[in-house]
Amino acid sequence: MPKIAPYFSKKLIVWYLQNKRDLPWRNTNNPYHIWLSEIMLQQTRVLQGLPYYLKFIEAYPKVEDLASAPEDEVLKLWQGLGYYSRARNLHATAKMVAKEMDGVFPNNYKDLLKLKGVGDYTASAIASISFNQPEAVVDGNVYRVLSRFFGISTPINSTAGQKEFKQLAQELIDKEQPGTFNQAIMEFGARYCVPQSPHCENCIFNDSCVAFQQKKVTQLPVKIKSKPVKQRFFNYLVILSENERTVLQQRNGKGIWHKLYEFPLIETSKEIEVSELQELPQFQDFSEKINIRNISLYNQEAVVHKLSHQHLNTRFWIIETLDETESSVAISEIESYAMPVLIANFVSEFFENY
Q1: Is 174 left (phi over 0), alpha (psi -120 to 50) or beta?
Q2: Where does the record place the HhH-GPD domain (predicted)?
Q3: What is the model's pLDDT at position 186?
Q4: How much is the pTM?
């Protein structure tokens, strides 16, 4: 390792400096900006996360601005980015930094880990990029580059694998420019050593990459198979009243979309027809509170919303009523509520010409 580390890191950094994308968070070492970008890019591609980063920086130039914003406003601005617990943790951490730390982020890995929503990867990224500390990042891109270059078959989602790759990355990191090294290896994995059809023939490491030499590129990295995807069936009741109002409910239980808004929901074990819907106890309880004039199914073919470990097979039932549901929401104001992208897409499509 002592011999290979300088070769690997220097070659990688030279490649990065010549090929890196011009991204706004690479033109600063401001820990607020670095933290914001790293939280947003978890489980998210750069092209998807970039517009959100720019929106947040514009709306909340300083951590104090984010801290003082209402949670619903933050969730609304986050809408469409997914994994909403990141947004709630983001808001909680902003409050903590603003109120308990006088707006100053911790300047070391150990204390950064104490922030809500900040794990090993994010703490390492901030510590190295903002404070020039030699803390190696390990994400999916890094796992892929290292497993292929060194021919490591230890599963990356095992405890042993996580420990092994973290130690290896720590040995390889350039102590003089750790932030640059971390960004370089992530960039290389994201753009060159990609999951499918990597650019091996023109790779800067193809003369020393074990996976390429041994024709194991498609076999690495190794990942233990996860649990099968769970199929869920969502039936949303979209109320349309005579006074152009509808009903929204806020999700408060544990699970997906905590604190986001949605239409009244009935979950079933399979797709159902209107007669089956009307026989459900939840629907009967619901119908006792509202004078239903007509029920129609908006989408015969379910919208399949794919999450990491579950697929939501979703259908929207249009419920017309003669009642003036004054305790509900004006249809003209519905888009101001923070809601899952699944609901937001329906709202945009259905109410566009309503």
Answers
A1: beta
A2: 40-191
A3: 95
A4: 0.83
Parallel, antiparallel, or unpaired for β 230-240 and 310-321? Answer: parallel
**What's the CA dihedral at 141, 145, 146, 147 to 10 degrees?**
100
Distance CA 151, CA 138 (A): 17
pLDDT digits (tens, 9 = 90+) for 168-226: 999 999 999 999 999 999 999 999 999 999 989 899 998 999 999 999 999 999 999 87
Q: Catalytic residue numbers?
A: 38
- The answer to whether the CB of 81 falls within 8 A of the CB of 54 is no
Which domains can be identified in the chain, with CATH numbers?
Answer: 4-219 (1.10.340.30), 230-350 (3.90.79.10)
The contacts of residue 87 (CB under 8 Å, 6+ apart) are 74, 75, 78, 81
Render pLDDT for 139-168 as a digit per residue (tens, 0 to 9): 999 999 999 999 999 999 999 999 999 999
Tell me if 105 sits within 8 A of 97, measured CB to CB: yes
Note the pLDDT tens digit of each residue in 278-307.
999 999 888 888 888 899 999 989 999 998
- Please give the pLDDT value at position 2: 45
Which residue type is seen at 133? Q
Amino acid in the structure at residue 67: A
